[in-house]
Predict the structure.
Amino acid sequence: MGIQHEETLECPCPCHASGGTCAMCASMEGGAARKVASDPVEMAAMIWQKAFFKAHLEFMAEKLKKKIEAAWGPTSDKAADAMIERMGSQWGAMIQQAKAEQTFREKLTKLYSEVEKKQ
């Protein structure tokens, strides 16, 4: 079973995220897509090239992560601490609210049970 058009392949090329089209993806339009679908060597070449672009993009992201950590790491650590503190407070408040709801429901259950016993 051959691939009929490019949409059936997940393309890792970064041009799709930006809304643009690179030369390789543009070449897939029309007859080129049919050629790739029927030629396993062409398909492999396309996949290797797209995998290269994906790996290169990931490589660049890792480089940036290291630079960002070096430049903004301490500030980001403090921001992360502030977020954890905020979420801890918010989580605690949510637990208190849930407990209040549970207590209310337990009291209602008890009240309604007592009314039922009297009838």
